[in-house]
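Notes from the 1:1 (GR / supervisor)

We went over the backlog. Supervisor wanted to see one worked example end to end before approving the batch request, so GR pasted a single chain during the call. The sequence is below; no edits were made to it. Supervisor asked that the structure be written out right there so they could see what the output format looks like.
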Amino acid sequence: MIVRRPSIEHVYLCTEFVDFRKQISGLSIYVEAVLNMNPFDPNLFIFCNKRRSHIKALYWDSNGFALWQKALAKDKFKWPRRCTTATLTVTEEELLWLLDGLDILKMKPHQPLNFNTVF
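Structure output shown during the call:
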């Protein structure tokens, strides 16, 4: 099966746990009503259940919503906690780290350095 990769501008993690009985309609309404964001914008919205064993990703794909889900057979996702905002903006790379089981808030890359000369 071939899946088209959507054009995504931002990846938003919903910091509050979501009832996973919600499907496309419920999650898109949640994005609009609770997160105060436009679910039709080219963004990826990521949700986690309270047990942190499942993740759902919602996005608008030009003519309809698409919903993707990952369920862990064992273990739990390292979902960000103690956030003061309803969403946390992450990079696609950080999302992949999260899906691999890494704690993205504890991972800090080397800071980029900008020099004008080698002397």
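Supervisor's comment: The mean pLDDT is 89.
Batch request approved.
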